[in-house]
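TASK: fixed-backbone design
INPUT:
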């Protein structure tokens, strides 16, 4: 039986088209990665990407998401409902090994949130609305 090698990518961009971050979903169970540019950190970009990926996973009928998290990203994933399964190592694309935490989130029910708009606040006292969007790009690798 063949393996589905579809990778579904979501990219967050600002009003000028500058990439702020991206996330990947690799069915049937893998959340590939979520990366955000340092200049876009702590502004809700990673959370919005994760929410979009989670909705897509549910649409595809995925029941669980598993991933190898970097050690620094563990608190982010715990805040988003993941649990730690074990600690280990992950081989990067360049062949180097990275310490990681294998994490899992069981997907239950349906998402009740509308993800068509993203009103995120930067945390400043005047609560200026951050302006950026999620662009969907899906690719199939053979």
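OUTPUT:
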């Amino acid at each position: 039986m063949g393996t589905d090698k579809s990778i579904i990518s979501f990219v967050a961009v600002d009003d000028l088209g500058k990439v702020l971050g991206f996330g990947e979903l690799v069915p049937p169970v893998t959340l590939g990665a979520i990366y955000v540019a340092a200049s876009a950190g702590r502004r809700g970009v990673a959370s919005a990407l994760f929410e979009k990926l989670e909705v897509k996973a549910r649409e595809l009928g995925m029941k669980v998401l598993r991933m190898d998290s970097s050690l620094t990203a563990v608190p982010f994933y715990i805040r988003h409902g993941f649990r730690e399964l074990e600690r280990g190592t992950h081989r990067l694309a360049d062949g180097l090994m990275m310490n990681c935490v294998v994490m899992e989130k069981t997907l239950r029910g349906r998402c009740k949130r509308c993800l068509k708009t993203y009103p995120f606040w930067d945390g400043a006292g005047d609560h200026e609305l951050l302006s950026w969007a999620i662009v969907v790009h899906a690719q199939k690798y053979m």
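COMMENT: Residues 45-59 form the longest helix (15 residues).
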